[in-house]
Amino acid sequence: MVHQQTGWLVEPENSQAVADAIVFLLDHPQMAVQMGHAARRRVQELFSWEHHVNAYDALYQKLMKANQSCQSR
Q1: Domain ranges, ordered by start, for the chain
Q2: Block mean pLDDT (10 aa), the chain, length 73
Q3: What's the predicted TM-score (pTM) here?
Q4: What is residue 32's three-state secondary structure?
């Protein structure tokens, strides 16, 4: 999450900060909408199936190369 771009970060267990963030977003609904759209785009980019498949493929390739190196010793 990117503070004030894709959401609002607050310290853990700080209920006053959560309340302040909620009040701010209620007072600034357009900013809340913009953050919601930005958060959706970020999730689609970072957590798409294609991203996961590519990450697993890269991991498997790395593991296979490491395994081949160990076997040739």
Answers
A1: 15-71
A2: 89 96 96 95 89 91 89 73
A3: 0.62
A4: helix
